């Protein structure tokens, strides 16, 4: 790798640094190391000793408990912009590089692109430059800082599965996890764990999708039942007003300290609401062009409701063969239909995955024997032979084709569901797949009306469950307003 300064590195002449005067391994040692050796690299207080704030120390206590306690293996900090995520990552990286009493420490900094990874690296390098006693211990290269006396190193790595193989990190930091894909996160988290203590730490603002790795980890952290996973989230309360400055303080621990309120006020007037909520208030608001406003669907959840056996229901089915999800949802036939999961089968992300058709058939059979199924409306694509056999078993009047690609049918169904959602005339069982697919769905306006489509740029964000629910709801609505009558079927 090319050295940052041309020519071979001069040998290190300074004796190894003695950290024996610092407290033993743990958060007190991090604090003492930062205060005595590090300076604020830029921004407010640039050049002053790096004094960790009480809220930062709380986080560090969680990540680096005193020596007798077990350290977590993974951590996630969700913080809005400008709260010192990158600076804190640099402090922890330097502590791990120099002072964590670890043989041949390996500190890896991963980010979606090199520029992002360089933010932490640049901050760390600047802090070293500001600390002569550290500076004389290291060789600095373009993307690597080496401490020859201890064999420790700090490196930046691209967030790419191949580049992440074969390391043995003592600390791995992902700056801005929200842009990292699932396979990269798996590669990151499986790289560590070979040492007695190692930490994979992600520090990020929220992503724009509840189907992201970050949201999965946020939900995991919120559940709070794994001591090896440290989680801290700073966010304004859900649904707060955009200009509620008290909520701003809840979300931004650095506000009025090294984050300035006038900058936030200016932004609140100039950037779009979802972006402000996400970046400045730490809230999960979905992407900008979704079909429903964030939180509207969640507001209709009624997870305690059990659809009683024998209830009159309509079923919507959107099948796939391999790529997308296969989704089967029900809707009760009543003035305020309740939408519920019957079965959903998701491709976990592999190319050769096939939907387990026998399981799908069993779920359909179970639904027909449990409920009074007035109609199963199914997209026939890839499922003709099953549809045929269900029609033979359950009657041709009850099993009908519903081509979800046919806008003349799908647009009115979508509109009906939209109106019902806006008016609060529908409830649902809080099924997580449906919730994710609803939040992925974008509305596209056609001559026939709005229909749902997925984000073309993010094809993995599926919407099949939303389609099945729209179909189930439309058919339930139909039977609420029309008496069942004999109908001709298309085959
Ligand atoms: N105690 C402190 N902790 C963290 N940063 C501090 C502290 N004191 C001063 N600062 C300065 O505050 C600024 C914090 O910015 P930083 O880039 O670290 O925030 P961020 O959350 O990563 O922002 P972004 O979301 O834009 O990436 C830096 O210039 C840093 O030097
Ligand atoms: Mg940053």
From TrEMBL:
Q: Which residues form the Terminase large subunit-like ATPase domain?
A: 54-220
**Protein name per its UniProtKB record:** Phage terminase large subunit-like protein
Q: What Gene3D superfamilies does this protein map onto?
A: 3.30.420.240, P-loop containing nucleotide triphosphate hydrolases (3.40.50.300)
Q: Where is the Terminase large subunit-like endonuclease domain?
A: 224-341, 369-476
- What is a GO molecular function of this protein? endonuclease activity
Check the record and name the PANTHER family matching this protein: PROTEIN YMFN, PTHR41287
Superkingdom of this protein's organism: Bacteria
């Amino acid at each position: 790798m090319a050295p940052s300064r041309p020519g071979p590195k001069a040998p290190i002449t300074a004796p190894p640094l003695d950290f024996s005067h610092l407290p033993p391994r743990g958060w007190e040692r991090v604090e003492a190391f930062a205060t005595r050796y590090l300076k604020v690299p830029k921004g407010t207080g640039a050049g002053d000793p790096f004094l960790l704030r009480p809220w930062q120390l709380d986080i560090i206590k969680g990540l680096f408990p005193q020596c007798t306690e077990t350290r977590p293996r993974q951590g996630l900090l969700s913080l809005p912009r400008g709260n010192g995520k990158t600076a804190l990552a640099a402090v922890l990286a330097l502590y791990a590089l120099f002072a964590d009493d670890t043989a041949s420490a390996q500190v890896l900094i991963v980010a979606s692109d090199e520029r992002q990874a360089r933010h932490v690296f640049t901050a760390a390098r600047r802090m070293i430059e500001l600390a002569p006693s550290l500076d004389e211990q290291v060789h600095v290269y373009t993307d690597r800082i080496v401490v020859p006396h201890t064999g420790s190193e700090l490196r930046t790595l691209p967030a790419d599965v191949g580049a992440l193989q074969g390391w043995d990190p003592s600390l791995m930091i992902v700056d801005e996890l929200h842009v990292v894909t699932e396979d990269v996160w798996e590669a990151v988290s499986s790289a560590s764990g070979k040492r007695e203590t190692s930490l994979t730490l992600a520090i990020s603002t929220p992503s724009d999708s509840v189907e992201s790795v970050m949201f999965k980890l946020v939900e995991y952290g919120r559940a709070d039942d794994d001591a090896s996973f440290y989680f801290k989230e700073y966010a304004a309360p859900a649904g707060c007003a955009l200009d509620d400055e008290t909520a701003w303080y809840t979300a931004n621990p650095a506000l009025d300290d090294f984050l300035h309120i006038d900058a936030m006020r200016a932004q609140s007037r100039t950037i779009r609401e979802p972006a402000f909520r996400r970046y400045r208030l730490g809230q999960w608001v979905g992407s900008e062009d979704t079909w429903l406003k964030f939180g509207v669907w969640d507001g209709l959840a009624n997870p305690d409701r059990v659809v009683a056996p024998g209830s009159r229901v309509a079923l919507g089915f959107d099948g796939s063969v391999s790529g997308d999800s296969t989704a089967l949802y029900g809707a009760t036939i009543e003035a305020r239909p309740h939408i519920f999961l019957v079965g959903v089968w998701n491709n976990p992300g592999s190319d050769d995955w096939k939907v387990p058709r026998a399981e799908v058939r069993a779920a359909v059979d179970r639904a027909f024997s449990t409920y009074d199924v007035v109609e199963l409306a199914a997209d026939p694509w890839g499922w003709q032979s099953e549809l045929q056999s269900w029609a033979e078993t359950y009657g041709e009047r009850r099993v009908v084709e519903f081509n979800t690609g046919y806008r003349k049918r799908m647009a009115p169904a979508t509109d009906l569901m939209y109106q019902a959602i806006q008016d609060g005339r529908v409830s649902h069982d809080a099924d997580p797949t449906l919730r994710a697919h609803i939040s992925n769905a974008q509305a596209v306006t056609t001559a026939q009306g709005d229909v749902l489509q997925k984000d073309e740029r993010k094809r993995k964000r599926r919407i099949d469950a939303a389609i099945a629910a729209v179909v189930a709801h439309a058919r339930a609505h139909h039977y609420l307003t029309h008496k069942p009558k004999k109908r001709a079927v298309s085959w």
